[in-house]
Design brief:
12 helices, six-stranded mixed sheet, eight-stranded mixed sheet, disordered N terminus, FAD/NAD(P)-binding domain, alpha+beta
């Protein structure tokens, strides 16, 4: 049975002597990993480079596999309470405003995959994980510690910070993001690669928007992607823990930008200029955006090895991906769930168990990385005859056939079984 944690209550009880696990990074991946391995009796020290532990960003989407992972980690109930479960994924033509296709997410979808499909703000998910970590006896959070290096011996590993502080444990799990310092030492493959795609984000309280400014096809029960040549826009509605509802807008242009932009603020007029000749609904949605920020999207090529003895990478440090398969957070949660199960030990064979983690996770995450790239080209950004062929193909698929297409992703439940779901 999965270990459950109620974030509202302190967690007591004895811990077996399983050794201390070091986790680098207190984002979603690091905190999920801390909970997952602490549930198996390990003491955990989470080292975060920032002085404040928080999660920036916009809304995110969680498919059924993410909720199966959250259940194993022990926080699915709290995450469900903050999520909005949607009824459909819609694909719309950004120029004409016409519907292309839609995949239903209720009924047979939920029966088949064992969970629904939800949206929420990344900060809400992070808050649930952070509260649970603070309530857990075996987890210590240490902010203001920027890990730049590691050393190891056959029986221990030491994380070294930029100020020379040293933290020692039986294993080190690096969840320090796409520009991971631990990956730089472990893999040595340089910096992430720019995709040429620029994304613009805005999150707007619905209460701030006059009803007559909302487009008639807002469809609050769906996640909607408006697609066009070399550009697309996604919108959905999520809510905060206090019940406040927000409109999440994410608009993307594929125009070859290689410049490194991370959260740069910009004017609404700049965003609108990226989407000329758009359908009325698209223009109206973009007009609603406030305090726009922009990022150039990056990923990395899949690699075969994420481990070095007692050190392993996780999430974006191991397999960063473009957002088009909407699986970055879900794959990270799967990693955390898998590590908790595989590190259910006393610390004597940690290196072998980390090698197994690498072996059971790499093919699935590599496939997802490559599919995410392909979706940007074939699903979201084609033009002319290629776009027409996409529309014809998708419109001809039944709901069951659409579910078949995502079964290998959304249907995963056993995260230490590299073959389960592989045939889908």
């Amino acid at each position: 049975m999965p270990h459950r944690v109620d974030p509202a209550l302190p967690q007591g009880g004895p811990h077996v002597s399983a050794g201390r696990i070091l986790v680098v990074g207190a984002g979603i991946g690091g905190l999920a990993t801390a909970l997952s391995v602490a549930a198996r009796g390990h003491r955990v020290t989470v080292l975060e480079r920032r002085d404040e532990i928080a999660e920036p960003g916009a809304g995110t989407q969680l498919s059924p596999n993410a909720f199966h992972a959250l259940e194993q980690i022990g926080v699915d109930r709290a995450v469900r309470e903050r999520s909005v479960f949607v009824d459909e994924l819609r694909l719309m033509n950004a120029t004409t405003g016409e519907r292309i296709a839609g995949m239903p997410l209720t009924g047979r979808y939920r029966e088949r995959f064992g969970n629904g499909y939800a949206v929420l703000h990344r900060g809400e998910l992070h808050s649930v994980l952070l509260d649970a970590c603070r309530a857990a006896d075996g987890i210590k959070l240490v902010p203001g510690q920027s890990v730049t290096w590691y050393d190891q011996t056959p029986d221990r590993v030491t994380a070294v910070t930029d100020t020379g502080r040293r933290f020692t444990g039986s294993a080190l799990i690096a969840a320090d993001g796409i520009r991971s310092a631990v990956r730089r030492q472990l893999v040595g493959d340089g910096g992430p690669q720019a995709s040429g795609h620029t994304i613009y984000h805005s999150v707007v309280p619905l209460a701030d928007i006059a009803e007559d400014r909302l487009p008639p096809d807002l469809s609050p029960g769906s996640v909607t992607a408006w697609v066009g040549a070399d550009r697309h826009m996604v919108h959905f509605i999520h809510r905060a823990a206090d019940g406040t509802r927000y409109l999440n807008l994410g608009a993307t242009r594929d125009h070859g930008t290689q410049e490194a932009l991370v959260g740069l603020p910009l004017e609404k007029s700049h965003v609108l200029a990226q989407f000329p000749e758009s359908a009325d609904s698209v223009r109206r949605l973009l007009e609603l955006g406030q305090e726009w920020r922009t990022w150039v999207l990056n990923d990395r090529d899949p690699v075969a090895g994420w481990t070095d003895g007692r050190v392993a990478l996780l999430g974006n440090a191991a397999h960063p991906m473009l957002p088009y398969a909407v699986q970055g957070v879900s794959m990270t949660l799967e990693d955390a769930a898998a590590l908790g199960e595989l590190l259910d030990c006393d610390g004597r064979d940690v290196a072998q168990r980390l090698e197994k983690y690498n072996a059971v996770r790499r093919a699935r995450t590599a496939r997802t990385q490559l599919v995410a790239r392909e979706l940007g080209t074939r699903l979201l950004h084609p033009a002319g005859e290629a776009a027409a062929a996409r529309d014809t193909m998708l419109a001809a698929l039944t709901a069951e056939e659409l579910h078949d297409r995502v079964a290998w992703l959304h249907g995963k439940r056993d995260f230490t079984n590299s073959t389960e779901g592989a045939e889908n």
